[in-house]
């Protein structure tokens, strides 16, 4: 929902610059750009000369498809799942796409709770940047913050008790601003977060957090 930033934010931490540039890319997307790409690609294909094939080409292709369908169903499902995960990253706007692909190749997703995955993004800055993948109906427990938390929705949407956030919307939460973000129905929510501090859980979870982090 927030689109205004301090004047000096572009000279600030690289993680914040990544967030601002990603939001700018999201706001600048249009269906025309994709339509133009389709037209250019179609013209290039039509300009190619047809390649000769053997008489049994189609039967050979269909035989290969049948063989694939008959073998290793579990492996196929894993491949499809990996393909969907890769498609999600490839669909991210620049510059978030490149750094996410690099992070996926280096460390990949980690479990961050039921229905939630997290992937650290190495920006070289002091602030922590990460990509969150949240299944509909899932999210983070009710929590506060020890520093400012910036959350940019890239795909899907979430609601946190303070508002609804859709692609291109930015949630900024500071210490004392508690919330409970949950992904809304309709698709996976992908969000880029930049954190200056840590989350501070509330209730029983908060008591456990303080117990295990006490020095």
Q: C-alpha Rg, in Å? A: 22 Å
Any idea what the CATH superfamily of the domain at 12-29 and 93-213 is called? Jelly Rolls
Beta-strand portion reads 15-25%
Distance between the termini: 38 Å
What is the CATH architecture assignment of the domain at 12-29 and 93-213? Sandwich
Mean pLDDT: 77
Binned, the helix content reads 40-55%
* Major sheet: 6 strands, antiparallel
User: What is the number of helices?
Assistant: 6
Helix and strand string, N-terminal first? HHHHHEEEEEEEEEEEH
Number of strands: 11
Globally, the shape reads elongated
Indicate the CATH topology of the domain at 12-29 and 93-213: Jelly Rolls
Q: Please give the CATH class of the domain at 12-29 and 93-213.
A: Mainly Beta
Summing up helix and strand content along with how strands pair, one would put the structural category as alpha+beta
- Biggest sheet strand line-up: 1-2-3-10-5-8
Unreliable stretches: 29-46, 204-215
What do you see in this structure?
The chain starts with 13 loop residues before the first helix and ends with a helix. A hairpin with a 6-residue loop joins β2 (116-121) and β3 (128-134). The protein contains 6 helices and 11 strands. The longest helix has 18 residues, at 73-90. Helices cover 40% and strands 22% of the residues. The protein is α+β, with helices and mostly antiparallel strands and 215 residues long.
